[in-house]
Amino acid sequence: KHCGLKGAPTQRVNQFPSRAAMTSSIFRAAVTSVVAYLATADSGDEACQASGKGCQGNSEWGKGAEIYEYTSSANPKMSEVPIRVFGPELHQQGPSRVVPLDASADLQLPYAATSPNLLASFVRVLAGEELPTGVERATSQMFYVIRGQGRSKTRAGELTWREGDLFVLPYLGNEATPVCAEKSQCVRHSCLEDSHYGGCALYWVHDEPLLKYLGVVPDTVRRFEPTLYPGDIMRETVAAISDLDEHGHVRNRRGILLGNPATSQTKTLTPTLWSLLNTLGAHASQEPHKHNSVALDLAVSAGQTGKVYTLLGRSLNADGVIVDPVTAVWESGGVFVTPPGWWHSHHNNGTVAAWVLPVQDAGLYTHQRTLDIRFSAGEMELLRSGTSRGATLPERMSEAVPPMVAGTIMTGHM
Description:
19% of the residues lie in helices and 29% in strands. The chain is of the alpha+beta class. 33% of the residues are buried. The protein starts with 18 loop residues before the first helix and ends in a 29-residue tail after the last helix. It is built from ten helices and 23 strands. Helix 1 runs antiparallel to helix 3.
């Protein structure tokens, strides 16, 4: 129990290094031994083939080997996705330009990104001018018209648009004639008119950061076709959804998911991108929920100034209340970032309805069955019963779902 010589004062003696220091030393030594083993002097082709020692290829490949102790490294410390707010003033003034909503410094990435997988930008085009936007290797590009009327020319053809429209483009390859020199997947935007700030504004989101992380380029075969979602039809479809659910209760959410024939199983905008047009009525609140995807939320219309906001927090208590929340106040035409796994709820304390268009990398998560979206009501039941749901797909997902809660509301619009 105690270390000491007979007859001498007994005392505790700490002769051992800390667990962390010891673990670090052990694995530094292990890696050093591996590299030394692989770097053994070449003893000839026959010896290399017989023992594996001294082989030049093994020696070079071994220099990149790193070994980590499991329990201390299974959940590595990484830079977090920050809560960020990007105001509408970024696209309301100044010359024609692209304004990346860049958080790469926070994410510790060597390329522009708003979240690990996506980059969002504001595109401002002065009335009567043109502006190219370009990426080299995104599989999906989404453009939402914040303001104005204009047209966009792509390798797949030309599209006219107005406020509220949304369109998506796949990787179009390099065979068709390019429309501009701004990188291979260039789109040329023209603003015809804008009566508010002298220039059209687009919200542009693509998945090039994901492909840069993977070090890949898209297949030359289109994964989906260019698709337009007219703003008036989207708003009319939302308005047609009843305020009451099938049980006669006030519906917690009134919104539409934007799908594509190429994503019939995930019901997402593209294979990687997910989007929802959602309205928040006067004096309404949408209860907390969370998901593993990152949300890049565009406040399409913020209702009464300062009256609409989102609460975000890491934890939810047994009463369904977000613990120590951060408040993100909506601004019309502004964007805020919701980190993955954070509980968040939307609130409208004003008298005017608000609209929000979140864009997420949830297409990828849904395909992987790892989106794990959870709502506070279901989580409260689990917390109060002392249980924890581990499955990413709840059993009730296999049950039949009534109309207007899930399923196809409309297909096609032209």
